[in-house]
Sequence to fold (302 residues):
Amino acid sequence: MDNDLDTLATALYVTTDDFITTHPHRAPDRPAVGIQPRISDAELIVLAIMETLLGFTSERRWIRFAHTRLTSIFPYVPQQPGYNKRQRNLTVLMQHVMTHLATSTGLLDDDVWVVDSTPVECGRSRETVKRSDLAGYAGYGYCASHSRFFWGLRLHLVSILHGLPVGYTLTGAKADERATLLSMLDAVPVAVPAGQIIMADKGYNGAWLEDELTGGAVELIRPARKGETPRPGKQFLKPLRQTIESVFDTLKGQLGLEQHGGRTISGVLSRVMRRLLALTAVIWHNHTTGQLVLRSLTAYDH
Fold:
């Protein structure tokens, strides 16, 4: 099977359409009587994934491109206001599709997961902070990896070593990473097996966290903090710990997470969800077609 964007879009459309047909309650509510949409939810999800993989960070530019270059595939593409509204309404459905793709690969059974968080910046000027509709959700935080303060949200992500997302959540910039990890593990789409290994950085410390994870038969491997005795699993940290940073680099450098452009909480959620679904769809398709590097986007970004 060819490994390109057209093939991915076709496979994703068929899979998404079948999922919606099988689980109609997952789709957004629509009045029983009224005008029938000219473009289906499955087509809109495929459009959003193509927009993300092709590197468009402006919906208006993407709509112009689609009207010019994609009419043979999508006879009707809504204008930007309608497109934006439909995409925000599809956020929950995208999450269910992402879970369906991830679980169908069987890769979530990997016995090593990695966890970390990264800033999702939402504004830089003081005027933006004062006027933004994200007030009450976004806040000031500090990114130790880049030694800088930011105003926005924080994306927490649990993934396997191949980069496939297992669980994610968006929180305020100062949310406790340790408590967030526990809440994510309670919500992952697969049962956390006994003996599951989770790799983290020094921020995921604390006796209470260790007790909670140990009670669930989960082993936490992290670097020892200053003054701590050496911890078990140290030999695995150097070759494997940077995996999660590489996943974040894919989300930001290739999928444009830092240029999300969201101005409301629903807008930010929608745009973050598109990036995570795009990453999941690529890994799912690469796994299905037998590619050696599952997180490679090279075949799909042009």
